[in-house]
Specification:
With 499 residues, the chain is of the alpha/beta class. It folds into 2 domains: 282 residues, FAD/NAD(P)-binding domain (3-Layer(bba) Sandwich); 193 residues, FAD/NAD(P)-binding domain, CATH 3.50.50.60. Helices cover 28% and strands 25% of the residues. The C terminus is likely disordered.
Length: 499
């Protein structure tokens, strides 16, 4: 038997965990900005793409435009700005091919533990592997910097409320996160429980062939419609070089997102009226608009986007309907609401949300002490106090995910270069100001956030511990701000342990 020591383990300058949208982007940034760095991308599944490979439900698409969900360094070339899942997956994998990342990806390597040792400024990680036809194995690797690109939800299970009577239903029950390949819903009555982005994507896609689709919601969601194609962006591509057209379209959409978000926060009553006007234009004055009139303000939860009015078209055509109410119990033929109304169904789709899990279950230790994430404070929305040489890509809740992930990857590359030039082996944010108080890291009221808040890190009451949810502030801070800002502590390696 061969026993591996730290000196015989495979070693990298950087280990990226996750080969989804943010992980592939991180690898491409390292290729471009830190070409001398060795790195590997560890992916627990057997395929890249993350969300866009895992989710296979009908109609799967982005709820952000691809000029901002796409990478800053690689133009989106398709005509549709609101893209379907397969197109996004193709874009991610083409990016991996363009930057020669496939050879760096370790598929079937699920990282379970990571331990930092200050003695030699090194992370040691353990990854579970499942070779075909063999028993699971655990392998160990070392790296100088750990970059988590694991997304924000649990891949192994979606969220389903505890409905004791669900087993009474005699039809088929499906969660969108695990959509069966051969589910036949043609001419069937389908009940979709939920009103978030997944539900409003599913309803028109199912309605195209189902007998009827009912969307049952406990409470309404703000829904807005926009064209799937960005006419201005498509025009710019005709008259400008590809990269220039992409950059202009990207900035146009960043500014538009920021404008409407700020308008929603400062003048919520006006935005409510504006959104309600759009609903009336789609469904007419006589439609019961309480189904689209939430009690909360716009952007207390994420707005849902409908491309080309597809949801409203299916409602107008009588192929779909919306019901607002509370579930009393499930019955063999469907369910019964607390109002006494019964909804018949052959198939029930529980589009009831995700389980938020921002480190994918990874157990961290620093010098043998377990890291409890709920006790940590997020530095610049990407690192944690007293956890050295670790960053995490986490996107915006009020704009496209990749906008923040791109900035985070740029920052990591700047940080690595700065450490090399100054001979530093480690960097760690420290909370040295006693007046900084912890605050909830997210102010969203969405169910998946509320359920997970107790397990999440906090943000701080002052810079640089504030989580802005603002691209322009983050751009100034992460792309142009000082790395040695008085909060980040840098240390050189011990001569006896320099690797």
């Amino acid at each position: 038997m061969v026993f591996l020591t730290r000196d015989t383990m495979e070693h990298f300058d950087v280990i990226i965990i996750g080969a989804g949208l943010s992980g592939i982007g991180a690898g491409a940034h390292l290729r471009q900005h830190c070409p001398d760095k060795t790195f590997a991308i560890f992916e627990g599944r057997e395929a890249s793409g993350g969300t866009w490979d895992l989710f296979r439900y009908p109609g799967i698409r982005s709820d952000s435009d691809m000029f901002t969900l796409g990478y800053s360094f690689r133009p989106w070339k398709e005509q549709k700005a609101i893209a379907d899942g397969p197109s996004i997956l193709k874009y991610v994998r083409e990016t991996a091919a363009e930057y020669d990342l496939e050879k760096e990806i370790r598929y079937g390597h699920r990282v379970t533990n990571a331990g930092w040792a200050s003695s030699d400024s090194t992370w040691t990680i353990q990854a579970e592997t499942r070779p075909v036809g063999s028993m699971p194995e655990t392998k160990s690797f070392t790296c100088k910097f750990l970059y988590l690109c694991t997304g924000y939800y649990e891949y192994e299970s979606g969220f389903t409320p505890d409905w004791p009577s669900l087993g009474t239903f005699t039809g088929t029950v499906v969660h969108p996160q695990f959509w069966p390949d051969k589910l036949d819903y043609a001419d069937r009555n389908v009940l979709v429980i939920g009103s978030g982005a997944t539900a409003i994507t599913l309803v028109p896609a199912l309605a195209a062939t189902a007998g009827h689709v009912t969307m049952l919601q406990r409470s309404p969601t703000y829904i807005v419609t926009m064209p799937s194609q960005d006419k201005i962006a498509n025009f710019l591509r005709k008259v400008l070089p590809e990269k220039a057209a992409y950059a202009l379209s990207r900035w146009k959409n960043i500014l538009r997102q920021a404008f409407f978000y700020q308008l929603s926060r400062k003048r919520p009553a006006f935005m409510k009226r504006l959104i309600a006007k759009g609903i009336r234009a789609e469904l007419g004055e006589n439609y019961p608009h309480e189904h689209f009139a939430p009690k909360y303000d716009p952007w207390d939860q994420r707005l849902c986007l409908v491309p080309d009015s597809d949801l409203f078209a299916s409602i107008r055509d009588g192929k779909a309907s919306v019901v607002t109410g509370e579930i009393a119990e499930f019955i063999p033929s469907g369910l019964r609401l607390t109002s006494g109304e019964e909804i018949a169904a052959d198939i029930i789709v529980t589009a009831t949300g995700l389980n938020l899990k921002i480190m994918s279950g990874l157990a961290l230790t620093v010098d043998g002490e377990p890291v409890k994430l709920s006790t940590k404070m997020a530095y610049k929305g990407m690192m944690y106090n007293d956890v050295p040489n670790l960053a995490q890509a986490f996107g915006y809740t009020n704009a496209s995910w990749t906008l923040k992930c791109d900035l985070t990857s740029e920052y990591v590359c700047r940080l690595l270069d700065y450490m090399d030039k100054n001979g530093y082996a480690s960097c760690v944010p420290r909370v040295s100001d006693p007046t900084i108080k912890p605050e909830p890291v997210l102010d969203f009221t969405s169910g998946y956030v509320v359920r997970a808040l107790k397990d999440l890190p906090s943000q701080g009451s002052k810079q640089p511990w504030r989580l802005h949810q603002n691209y322009f502030r983050d751009l100034a801070m992460l792309r142009f701000g000082n790395l040695d800002d008085g909060t980040m502590e840098f240390r050189r390696s011990s001569p006896a342990h320099g690797r």
